[in-house]
């Protein structure tokens, strides 16, 4: 699956109880105006972190769809978010 998205906002995701870094999170919007959250895991940061800039349009593929029933600390109401995997392509 591939998505063409624009990165709206990026920030570092840390644990709320400490300063443990989980990796960068980002908000993206697709061509239909759907807004979704994404994350780059800490162990993938060196590969992808410098590839993304806010306001730029990207086509990404081979990512992991993730679903959570828990809406605690979510930036948007969309039920899915994406996570970058080793095979993710930009």
TrEMBL record:
Superkingdom in the source lineage: Eukaryota
Residues of the Replication protein A 70 kDa DNA-binding subunit B/D first OB fold domain: 3-89
One Pfam family of this chain: DUF223
Name of the protein this chain belongs to: Replication protein A 70 kDa DNA-binding subunit B/D first OB fold domain-containing protein
Organism: Triticum urartu (Red wild einkorn)
């Amino acid at each position: 699956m591939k998505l063409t998205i624009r990165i709206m906002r990026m920030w570092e995701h840390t644990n709320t109880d400490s300063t443990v870094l989980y990796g960068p999170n980002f908000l993206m919007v697709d061509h239909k105006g759907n807004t979704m959250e994404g994350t780059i895991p800490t162990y993938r940061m060196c590969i992808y972190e410098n590839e993304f800039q806010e306001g730029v349009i990207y086509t990404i593929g081979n990512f992991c769809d993730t679903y959570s029933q828990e809406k605690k600390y979510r930036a948007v109401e969309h039920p899915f978010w994406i996570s970058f995997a080793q095979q993710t392509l930009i």
